[in-house]
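User: Second chain of the day. Same drill as before.
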Amino acid sequence: MSNHPVQTVSTSNDKVKIALAVVAAIAGVVGFFILSEQPYVRVIVLVLGLLVTLGILWTSEVGQGFVAFAKESVRETKKVVWPTPREAGQITAVVFGFVLIMALFLWGTDKILEFVLYDLILSWKK
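Assistant: Same format as last time:
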């Protein structure tokens, strides 16, 4: 796992691109609601607005950083050693067993405290 320093948008060019991407996204959403009488056109406008947004962000430094992060994430995921189906079943059985034992313990503790508090200390009879 690599440690990358946090980067902010530094160049004015990137700031303009991000502002344009936000405007394109808002325009797509607004167009979707304005064109409520035309169901197919409103969906096309929304999708086009989002595609334009993604296209603008793709060319920015932030977008390129996200693409590099996504590629590194996929590479790290390939390094994971996944359990076999038998191991997964055994782990699941252990978890269910622990949950059952803990549920019985908490139920028993509740009943003991109920008996001690209501029957012995307060002498309340049901």
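The chain has two domains: 12-78, 82-126.

User: Great, on to the next one.
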